[in-house]
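Researcher: Please generate the 3D structure of the following complex. Treat every line as part of one assembly.
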Amino acid sequence: MSNYPLISLAIWTPILAGLVVLATGTDRNAPLARMLALAGAILGLLVTIPLWTGFDVAQGGMQFVELKTWIPRFNINYHLGVDGISMLFVLLNSFITIIVVLAGWEVIQQKVAQYNAAFLIMSGLMNGIFTSLDGILFYVFFEASLIPMYLIIGVWGGPNRVYAAFKFFLYTLFGSLLFLLALMYLFIQSGGSFSILEWHKLPIALGAQIWIFLAFLIAFAVKVPMWPVHTWLPDAHVEAPTGGSIVLAAIALKLGAYGFLRFSLPIVPDASHELSGLVIALSLIAVVYIGFVALVQTDMKKLVAYSSIAHMGFVTLGFFMFSAMGIEGALIQMLSHGFVSGAMFFCIGVMYDRVHSRQIADYGGVVNTMPKFAALFMLFSMANAGLPATSGFVGEFMVILAAVKFNFWVAFAAATSLIVGAAYTLWMYKRVIFGDVANHHVAELSDINNREFLILGVLAVCTLWMGLYPQPFTEVMHASVNDLLRHVATSKIQ
Amino acid sequence: MEMQKLYLLVPLAPLAGAIIAGLFCRVIPRWLAHTVTIAGVAASFIASVIIFNDVQAGNTYNGSVYTWMTSGDYKFEVGFLIDSLTTTMMLVVTFVSLMVHIYTIGYMQEDPGYNRFFSYISLFTFSMLMLVMANNFMQLFFGWEAVGLVSYLLIGFWYTRPTAIFANMKAFLVNRVGDFGFILGIGLVLAHFGTLDYATVFAKAKDFSDVTINIWGSAEWSLMTVTCICLFIGAMGKSAQVPLHVWLPDSMEGPTPISALIHAATMVTAGIFMVARTSPLFELSTTALSFVIIIGAITALFMGFLGIIQNDIKRVVAYSTLSQLGYMTVALGASAYSVAIFHLMTHAFFKALLFLAAGSVIIGMHHEQDIRKMGGLRKYMPITWITSLIGSLALIGTPFLSGFYSKDSIIEAVSFSHIPGAGFAYFAVIAGVFVTAFYSFRMYFLVFHGEERFGKGHDEHHGDHHGDHDDEETSHDHHHGLAPGQKPHETPWVVWLPLVLLAIPSLAVGFFAIGPMVFGDYFKGVIYIDHVAHPAMAHFAEHFHGAMAMGIHSLTTLPFFLALSGVALSWFFYMKRPDIPAAIQRRFSAINTLFENKYYFDKINEIVFAGGARLLGKTLWRAGDVATIDGVMVNGSAKLVGLIASVTKVFQTGYVYHYAFTMIIGLVAMISWFVLRALPLNAY
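Model: Done. Output below.
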C-alpha cells in the first residue's frame, strides 16, 4: 500500500480536478462544473482514506514518505510525509472540501467553474502544507494557498469584499515574510538543508532560537489567529461566501496552529520553553477577552468568527503547556472546531441565503418555520458551547484538565469559557431561533432541503462520533506527540 | 455476564425510546411515541428492580463499558459502578420517571409538541441514569451536563414564550457557573490522583489528607479543601444552593411534569448524590464540610421564607424544593450522607407527588395557577385533594410519614455535629420546620378548603396577570381559569393514578427504610465517614431505637410542635382571619418587599453579571479591537494596502482570478518539471 505515492495523490488529485473543472469554462456549463467538482472532491477524500487505514499507530515518525529532488542547486526536495499530528488534518481538509462544494451548489450562480476550482485547488495546496517536510515546499504551499482564498473572498464575497480580501492577504503576507527569513537562516545554519526533519536536530544558540521563535510566532499567530493580530478574521468571515467561511474556519486557521507543532516546538525547543509564558498569556487573552467581545456582536458571522478565535486560544494554550494531554487536547480541539465551526457557518449561510441578512436583530422565532434546521443548529450550538457528547467538549476538557496540572489559575481563566462560551452561543440561539415569528421574512422561511440536511446531518454525525468515542482520534496521535514531547524536552543549546 | 447486559439496558432502553420518539416526532402517531418511551422507561425500571435485588444479595459491580479515550498517562472510560447508592438512585429515577411518563399522557394531551415532549423526558431519564451509574468523574460530568441540556430544552419547551426562553437560558448559564467550579475540581482530582476512576481515587484519598498546594502567594491550601469546594460549587449549581439557586424558581416555566421529574425529584438532587458519592474526599476536609453546611442552612431557611409569599401554585412548591435541597445539603455537611440520600429519596416521592398534584389542580382549574383564585377544590377533585394532603403532611414531617423520618434524621444528625457552622445550621433546620409547615398548609388551605374563589369572571384575572404564563402557546383555551359558573373537575385516570402510586411511598417508605438505610449496613463500603473527626452519625445511631420508637418519641419534641403550630397558624391566618396576613404585609412592608424581590438576587445578577459582561464586551470590542488594533495598528498597513492597490491596478488589465490562476498553473508546471526531471525515466 505504501508503495503508492498516496500523499502526492492527496495533493494533486484535487488540484488536477480543479483544473479540469476550470476547463469547463463559462457558466453555460455550470451543472457539469458542479458535478465534476463534486466527483473531484469525493475522489480527493477517497485517496486520503488509506492514509488513516494504513497508518501505523505505534510509529511516531513520518509515514508514507516521498522524497524526490526538486531544485538540486539549493538542495530543495519534494519531500512529503505524515505523522500522527498531521494525518488527520489531511482527511479533515479533504472531507471539508466535499462539504463546501455541496454548500455552494445552489447559492453560487456566477462563475461556478472558477468558484469550485478555487476550492479544489486550495484543498490540494492545504494538503501540501500539512504534509511538506521541506521548508521551501511548505512555504510555497503556504503562500500559494492564500491566492485561492483571496480570490474566493474578493470575487464571491459580500459588499465590502475587496477591503476584507486585502486585509486578509496583507496580514498573512506580513507574517510570512518573517517566516521566510527564518527559513533562510535555518538553511544557512544547517549547512545548506531545507529539510524540516534535519532542522529538528539542528543545535541552535538560545539567542538565535528566540529570534527564530518570534519570527515563527508572528507568522503563525496571524494565521491562527491569536490576539492581537486577529482582526482580519471577523472581516474576512463577514465578507466571505459561506463556503469560504467554512474552509477558513475549518482548515485555514489550523495551518498556523500546525506550524507551531511542526516548526516552533521542535526546531527551537529552548526558546519555546523560554517564551511559553507569552504564548499562554496571549492564548488566555484570546479565550477571555474574545469571549466577551463575541458576546456583544450583532452580526452572527462576526459572533461565530470571534468564537473561533476563542476556541483557537485553547489550541495554542494546549500546545505550550508541554504535556501530552494538552497537545492532544489541542489537536482534538482543532479537528472538532473544523466540524463545529464549519457547521455553524453553514447554518448561518442557510439563513442568509433565505433572508439575506446576518444581523441577529433581523431574526426571531425561526424554529416556528424551520424546525428541522433549529434542531440541528441546536446541536452545533451546544457543541460550540462545549457540551459533553459533542466533539466540542473533548478538546476543551482535555486542555482544561491539562491546565489544572500546569497551573491552577491558567485553568481557572480557561474554564471561564464554559460560562462565556455558553452565554454568547445560547444568547444568539435564543434571539435567532426561539420566540414568536419576528417578521414576514421569518414567516416565509422554508425549512432546509435535502442537500442542506445532508450536509448538516453528516457534520452532526462527525460531531457526535468524536464526542462519544474520541479514542480513534487520539490513538493515532500518541506516538507522534510523545516523540515531540521527548524532543522538546531536550535542549538544543550547545 | 447476564447482569452486565442488564446494566446496559437500564440507560439504553430510555435512550432508544427518546431516539425513536425524537427523530420521528413529526411522522409517528402520538400513541406510538408514548408507547415506546413508556416501554423503555418501564423496562429500565424493571431492570433496576432486578439489579437492586442482585446488589442486596451482595453482587456489586465496577467495570468499564468502553475506553472513551486515552491521552498521555491518563485513561478515560465509560463504565458502571453498581452498588447500593447507585441502585437507590436508579429506582428513584426510573420509578418517578415512569410515573411522570404516564401522567404526561393526560397532562400534555392537547399540546402540539406531544411527541417531542416524550422524547425529551426519556432522554432526560437516560442522562440521569448515566450520571448515577457512572464509575468515574468524566462520565459523571457527561451525565451532569446532559441533564442540564435536557432541562434547558424542557424549560424552554414552549419556545415562543419570552419568559420560558429567558428562563431556560438563565438555568443553563447559572448551571455553567457551577460547572466551572466542578470541572476545576475534576481537574484537581486528575492532576493529583492520576485517574478519574472513583474506586482508585477513593482508595488513595487518605494519602492526600495532608497534601497542600500553593494556589496564591505563599499560602498553602489543603488540597482536599480546594478540591471539595470546587466540586461542591458544581453541586451548588445543579442542586440550586444559594447563591446559584436563582434558576430554579424560573424553571417553573416548563410544563409541570418536568417540574416534578427534573426540578424536584431527580436532576436537582444530582449535586446531593455527587457529594454523597465522593464522601471519601469530603470527609478529609472539615473546612469544606463547614462550607457545605452553611450554604445548605442558608438555602434551607431563607428559601423557605420566600415560599410564604408566593401565590403561584408551582412557585410555592419550587421554593419548598429549594428549602428541602438545603436540608439535604445540611445533612451532607454534617457527614450524614446516608441521611441526605434518605431524604433525597423520600423527598423525590412526596415532592413529585406535590408537583403532579399541582399540575392536576392546574388542569382542573383550566390553567389557572394563582392560589388566590382557587379554594374549596376538595369537593370537585377528591383524589387530588387526598393525595395532596398526604404529600403536604409528608413534607412537613408528620410523625410516621416518610418525610418525618428523613427530615427528623437531618435535625438529629445536625444536633450532634460540632463542625463550625453546625450551630447555625441546627437553628436553620429547626426554624425551617415551622416555615415549611406554614407555607405548605397555606397553599393547601387556599387551594382545597375555604371559600370558592374561582369562576368570578375574567376582568379580575386579566388585571392581575402573573406575567409568567399568560401567553400560553398551546391549543388550550386562551382564557385562563374557569369561566363564571364553571366548576373544576377531577382529572382523568392517567393523571390521578401516578398521584396514588406516589402517595404510597410518601406514606410508608420512611418507616421501613430508615433502619437499614440510615443505621444499618445498607451503605456499607459505599459511603465513608471519618467517625473520629465527624462523630455526629455515630452519636445519632446510639439514640436510635427503631422507627416506631422514633415516631412516638417525636411527639414530645420541638420540631413536632413547630410543625403543628405552623399548620395551626396558617389555618388561622388563611381560613379564619385573612385580614391578619394582609395587615402584617402592610405593617412590615420592608420585609415584604425584600421577599417579593427574592432578596434582590435576580436584580443583582442582571445588573452586575449580565450587564457587566455586556459592558465589558462592548468596551473590549470598541476600545480594543476597533479603536486600538484596527484603528492604530492596522491603519498604517491599510494605507499601504491602498498604495499597493493603486500600483497593481496599473498592471492589471484582465480579471484578478485569471491572473492568479495563471500563477498557480505556472507553479504546477514548475513543480512537475523538476519532479519529472528528477525521476529516473529510463524509457527515454
